[in-house]
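hey can u check if this looks right to u? its 490 residues, i copy pasted from the old doc so theres a chance i mangled smth
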Amino acid sequence: MPLGSISDVHALRRNFSLCSVCTVRCIVVAFSLFPTALPAQDFSHPDTRPDPQAALVQQANDAVAARDFPAALKVLTTLNAQTPNNPQILYNLGLTLEALATDALPPYTAETSRSTSIAATGTVLTAESCYRAAIAADPTFADSHVALGLLLARSNHSSQPQLAEARTQLLAATALPDAAPTLKAHAFRALARLDLQAAPPNPTAASTDLLAALKLTAEQPDDILLSAQIAEAAADLPAAEQAYRRYLALADNATNPQATADLAHILLAEHHPADAEAVLIPALAADPTNPSFIAQLAEAYLASGDQTKIAQAVPLVEALHTKIPANSNITRMLARVYLETGHPEQADPLYAALISAQSDHPDPTLLDDRAEVLLRLHRPAAAEKLLKQAVANPAAFPDPQAFADAATHLAFAAAEIDDPRITLQALALRATVQQPSPSSLFLEATANDNLHQNGKAAALYKQFLAVAHGTLPDQELQASTRLAALQHTK
């Protein structure tokens, strides 16, 4: 009888997780690499002649049960030398090598923890090579397909070809008719995470994968979390919020800091700062040094529109910045807090330092942020210089709205220094990604007016007045006055 199998690979990597670029952050979930024991062979049948390898099998099982992976490695290496094409031995050897790669177990070095060799042949074995050999020995052995797929997907340096092969191996496992339903379900869940990691993410495929898993096995808590991430990637924020709340409603997850921060992120993206506060205040009371909670609560205060709360954001972020001064995201948030609380002079040196640290390829949104500060400080010429640099590469912006904001700021800066041609160029850039607004129509009208394009200016003033409806009274008075003057000169 061959070496006893590890019956539930799903338990090995139930919490397997992949990094995702979505939204502002990366979601990482810890995973358990190895079960508590390799099941021993069953030699209880008196009519069955014991396998000559039985003693070695039991030694391997005992070593793994004690998490003595170096001892298990020695025994499994011996077994593999005796029967080099046994897929189960190769698979179990691969799992042991993976365990050694994640455990610090002296006197094994980083090199030997990831590989071993067969003295007789000098062949170097790694977890990956063991899984590949197991697949070659028996292509219908689904466990090895899943193990290899997870290994390739989980690598810190996975390339696109590796991720593509990971998908191929996982799909192969789902297509094997004799594969256990739990194993197929685990493969589908891993495929869902791969779809979320894709560039760009494919939430539709991820949802299909998760539904396939749920047809095979009952829903698990991690499925709720995965469904939240899928909904977020699909920009279905209400569904993401509901799923995160379901996950946190479970007793074991009620205080999960990552899920709490994820829910707060969704609530802020939905423009529900009061709801975010309701989540974050008790979370911060339980974990007062959590930087994510502090930053998100400050963001909720800033978005509240309540000047008292906005003022409370200042000491929150200042304390966080003092604690983690090298964190550029916190520095940038502090600069924003200073700007929104009416202290652009305190924001400017922070933005300047951040830009200086990115001197080769500065983030265009960072250039736009500092330009906004410079406009508040009545330095439009300096703002215009930064904004010209920012809008020179539209593809570098994270989304069309960010590019439109920068182009709008450039139009305002150029208008401030009486540079109507640059104002019109900036508005033309804005128009490539966003419809005209009352403010942009007014800027376009005044720029054409300054260039003595009377007919065009008059038409734009009329468009502006038709949509402003009292929202910009000073500009509406100016537009009415100029329109009357232009019509009088016809």
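Residues 255-342 form a domain with the Serine Threonine Protein Phosphatase 5, Tetratricopeptide repeat fold (CATH 1.25.40.10).
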